[in-house]
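Async update (no meeting this week)

Hi team, since we skipped the sync, here's where things stand on the single-chain job. The sequence we agreed to prioritize is pasted below, unchanged from the tracker. I ran it this morning and attached the output directly underneath so nobody has to dig for it. Comments welcome in thread, and please keep replies under the output.
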Amino acid sequence: MSVNELDLLKAFMPMLPLNGNVIAGAGDDCAVLKWNHEYDLLVTVDQLIENVHFLPSTAPERAGAKLVKRNMSDIAAMGGEPLWAVMTLAAENKSQQYLERFMQGVSEECSRYGTALCGGDISSLKTEGFVTTLTLAGRVPRGQAVMRSTARPGDTLYVTGEVGNSFDSEHHLEFSPRLDLAEFLRKEASAALDISDGLLLDARRLAESSKADIRVDIEKLPLRQGAKLPEALSDGEDYELLFCGREGLPFHAVGKVLPGTGKVIVPGLKEVVSYGFEH
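Output:
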């Protein structure tokens, strides 16, 4: 029986125990935790699964780099700086050379962003496959984490780059996480998240978290070369940032935040392949 990712998350959320050190738990790009008088701690985790997030033909170094970068994108969306990581790896029918090349990609990408890879866990699988996770911790100036829940009616909706055709173009492997925008987001964005599961689905998450409606102006979307509009709205794996802020910021303005209850409004949309990507 197949499981609906969104329904499962809604069922899990009330079960998660919290304590007084949790500023923001599940439901954002990162958990935000109390740390010290200067910084809050950011923690995120993502999986990378063969035949879901990359193909068997993908060079293992590139797959390893993607594992790191997709986590970095979550830290970027919160306006943070990555610091430490731990990882897990479970594989069957992969040579030691393949796994060493994968780890080389992980190591080089962590080094690129000044992040210490502190350890983890390795296991075999009982069936053929490859599954790995990375837990990434970082920091953000105290009280300045950029949330999904704080979009304001009247804000303009922005995207930091092009969307669509990410898998066929191999953008999903070659992207650079928007860590260079962390300070800008803290100063200018009222709310933000990274686009990993499709622009429409992630816009809905932003709207629902902020208890506002979001209008997406499809004629303004910056499409990646080869992208078609319906797929660009729903395919995911873009790893750009969707954020809200004042009018006139130097990024692609693609909509508005409106008073409402958490809906996404798309004037003129006649067809969409799906509402977003589910893993």
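Quick observations from my side:
The chain has two domains: 16-141, 156-265.
The chain has a mean pLDDT of 92.
Reply here if anything looks off.
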